[in-house]
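FORM 7B: Structural annotation worksheet

SECTION A. Query
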Amino acid sequence: MEFAKEIFFIMNIIGLVAFAVTGSLKAIKEGLDLLGITVLGIMTALGGGITRDLLINTVPNALKSITDMSVALFGVWVAVVMYKVVKGDISNKYYILIPDAIGLSAFTTTGAIIAYNADVSFFGIIILATLTGVGGGVISDLLLGKVPSVLRDDFYASCSIIGSIGFYISMVLTSDLTVASIVCSLLVLMFRIVAILYDWKLPKFQ
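SECTION B. Predicted structure
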């Protein structure tokens, strides 16, 4: 139990850094200044969780603890350093995508747990879990005036939906929050990594 909590905590930290890096790289690519880079990095890392907490009428955890914000700011710094060193678009490199997948897994699971504890419905768990996983990226795309990439050309939010459904089914079958959390994390991570490796995309209709 304690070991699982430690692993999950590490996954959350990796996710915060990875999401902040992703958002910051988006901002750099669009030519934003340092403030814009910082805002986009922080919102990508924390925006989903903040929105989720507001929907369940809770003060966002990101505003109560200095840890999340500090880690997100560290991610912004990492992104700037990486951009200066590599000097090119690294957003699609595996060393960015895999940590991002870990973060998606951890954030989706966190959202599912919080949604379950808030006593919402089956659909509420799916919505809040997915929002926690992808909400920050959606916010950053909207701030840049773009259609969110999760709605357009990537098998990304679908991984959160699959994981949150697995979470709910596991809770129905076992009533064990730890088991359900592990199932959710593994499903999201597995589907996202496979999607990266095989370039999965949902069908489009013209």
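SECTION C. Observations
The first helix runs from residue 2 to 29. The mean pLDDT is 91.

SECTION D. Sign-off
Analyst initials: ____
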